[in-house]
Amino acid sequence: MTVNLLDFDLEGLAAYCERHGEKRFRATQLFRWIHQRGASDFSQMTDLAKSLREKLQGSAEVRSLPVVAEHISADGTIKWLFDVGAGDAVEAVFIPEDDRGTLCISSQAGCAVNCRFCSTGHQGFSRNLTTAEILAQLWHAEHFLRRRAGTTERVISNVVMMGMGEPLQNYAALVPALRTMLDDHAYGLSRRRVTVSTSGVVPMMDRLGADCPVALAVSLHAPNDPLRDNLVPLNRKYPIAELLDACNRYLEHAPRDFITFEYCMLDGVNDLPEHAEQLVALVRGHAGRGVSCKFNLIPFNPFPASGLLRSPAARVQAFSKILSDAGIVTTVRKTRGDDIDAACGQLAGDVKDRTRVGERIARQRTVMLVPVGPQAGSS
After folding, report:
1. pTM over 0.85
2. Which of 21, 125, 205, 286 has its CA at a distance of 20 to 30 angstroms from the CA of residue 81?
3. Is 264 a catalytic residue?
4. Residue 344 catalytic?
5. Confidence class for position 303, pLDDT limits 50, 70, 90
6. pLDDT given at position 334
7. How does the average pLDDT of the chain come out, rounded?
8. Is the pLDDT of residue 304 over 90?
9. Of 91, 133, 142, 166, which one is the catalytic site residue?
């Protein structure tokens, strides 16, 4: 059976090489070729022994994901829709800014958490992605962007696990992917610049803090349990007090000295002054010491099944002012990629209905099987 080398972090690749009678430094060479140079053809890897290249040709591959669609926004945001098989598709979004390039990556096909304001949750859950499928999104995007810019320098400086899915419910595949993102022989990203977003899977927050602490964003969205139970069903299992306790435990290991709380602004639901005041009391007073945090207020992107509306801009600003006046760092997320449905909460939630993704994947697979001219099939 052919092994996809994108499934391995460096330790995993070293173990793979050792099983084939190769020394550890060969794994480091191979890792650099794959991730730093974007190579997928073993014959290009000229500093590898010919015998190793021949072994790899018969037993391994570097396989990315087929791209079903690519959309480039007027503001430079790029969204890719990747085929992960069996009619499922996931999305990744690149957001360019003056001082950084951020890639938003998916961890699952669909999502089981079913937050009321998230269109991905309304799609339902299909399956976890493999480590290779998580990393393939970064591998494809990074090397596509380098070719587009005509550079060999790194383009993506930040990765956020905020695409489709709850990353901490796919922990076994997530951690090797994170380790590869951080590895200096691969993408060399700072722990401060890799963010895992969670709706609050408390036991796995503790494990992540011990195994691979990166920046953490917690989808809070409500200042009290009754409201959060309604918006984020996982709260019924891990209520706010338990979640904030876990945040404080995580901060003992985290590369940043704060947790980012994501807060989707929903008209008349969680955006009133009293909600902001409850948040201040919550994060200032929890367990007698509070939680070191910042808030990221997110404009809601409406979709028909939610029955929810976006908070008016004036109310968002008033909400932000209450938090800021209490000394809590608060930002309002700029909407990006609206013209290509790449904004927060829109990822692939209605993609099956709106883009007939199954039909498009089937068409693409058919095209891939049909010779396109006299050079088809030639090397």
Report:
1. yes
2. 205
3. no
4. yes
5. confident
6. 83
7. 90
8. no
9. 91
